Every structure is written in C-alpha cells, then in structure tokens.
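Researcher: Sequence of Putative transcriptional regulator follows. Predict its structure.
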Amino acid sequence: MAPAPNAVAQMLGLLGDEWTLLILQRAMLGARRYGDFHDELPVSNSVLSARLASLTHDELLVRREYQTRPPRSEYLLTPRSRSLWPMLTSIWAWEQRFVDDHPQPLPAMQHRMCGAVFAPQVECRACDTPVSDKDVLAHWGPSGGWDRCIPATTTRRRSGARRTPAAELFPQTMSVVGDRWGFALLVAAFVGLSRFTDFQNQLSAPPGTIADRLTLFTGEGILLNSEGRYRLTEKGRALFGVLVCALTWAQRWFPAPDGPAAILTHTGCGQRFLPALTCDQCRNRLRGAQILAV
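Model: Prediction complete. Tokens:
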C-alpha cells in the first residue's frame, strides 16, 4: 500500500496550483462573488467553477447564499485560508525586492502599529532572533520522506500562452511557486539537492518536468547552474520566508497521525523552529490586520 500523503503533499496539492493562489489572492483583496473572480482573472468558466468547488471542499473558502430569487452565492475566506497571510506577505516582500517587471509597481507595506513602511523579517518564535535559511536545520519527521511529499492531484499548470501579467499581483512568484513541481523542486534545493538526477530520482518526476522547472528557475535568477550543479542564488535563498511560512501552515492544518513531515531546528537556540514575522522598523510581531498597502 502506498504511504499516505503528508502535510507537505497536501500543501503542494492545494497551493501548488496557480489558479488556486490567484483566487485566494483575489479573495484576500476583497473578491467574493463569482463575477468578481471572473472579471479580475483571465480564467474560463469551467476552471473557475472547478477551483471554487475544490476550495470550498478543502475549507479554504466557504460558500454562502446571499440571494434566493434567483439563487446567488458568495465565497468567503475561512480561518484556514486567512492564516495564509504570513506566506502571502512574504511573497509580497520578495516581489518588491527582487522583481522589477510588474505591470504596475507594487504598493509598499505599512505597519499600522508603528506607522512605518516596512519589510517583514523572519524570526524564531522561541528566542525572538532574526533567522535565515543558514540558521535552520531540517530533517524528516515521522511522516516525512519524498515519497510522502508528492501530491496526489490532477490539477494542471496554467499554460504560459494564457498568462496575463496585468491580472497578477505577484507574477514571478506565481510562475515559480504556483506550480506543485516547482514548489517541490525549490524545497529540494533548500535541503541540499543540486544535480538533475537527484531532483528527478528524489521527486519521482518525469525528466521533462524537472528540465522545464530548472530552466524556469535559472531564467528567473533563482538558481545558478554551475558545471551541472544547481545552486540557490541570493534571490532564491530569499524565498526562505515563503517556504517556512507555507510549511508551518501545512503542518498546522494537516497534521499526520504519525507526526510531522519535517522538523526544523534553530541552531542559535537549539529549539524547534517556528517562524514569526516581525516589522523590521519597530521589531514588533506582525498581524495580518496590521498590514496596509500604501
């Protein structure tokens, strides 16, 4: 019997899809009704209906009827989807710092508590110390292993021919993180894989899939290919906050009966690492409701 998918697999199956991320993005910006999503995204009726149904099934949105004659419904965020704000805030900050080709400049982030324009900083929740990927050790937990991290999903990546950058707030992140194999490959790079055959064997992905994602990552400057080894660049390592916030979200909402998929340890204090986002200006911990676009 195949091992049960763990929290990482469930996260990749849910969030490693570009349309899902775009719909949740729009919902956090205020979209509620079917027409809102259809007007703001270059999506077909069939794809939009399917994603809204799956998001409702997975408790990322809740469907509420607001009119009976004729019947009309709206789609509202749930506690599960609202708690994605650290991941989305990290994406926002990464795009501001590293991506210049937005159709319109991204707004700055203002911290309501101190009034300053800020960038989020990742800290260890146990010792309140700023951390980077170099300060955190990762090893598999009881439900870990690459074989349990591969999502069982049939969702297909959105074709580049249909991409409409003007409809995307985070175009480069969506092209990299908004794809289950791209997300999995990025995680693999953070834990030390660097060769084409290692990515292929560990992720059990077709060679063409691995080649496509590696080409994308190197083209975007996230990986550097040096003599057949793919290394994370500064830009790639800066995605650390996105990944640890996504992993923390996954293990909170999809715990496995036999234990966590991955265990992170902060080398500075020796404690289990859980990320906290703080304001780099006042050093206070952030809350989603305290972040304003200016």
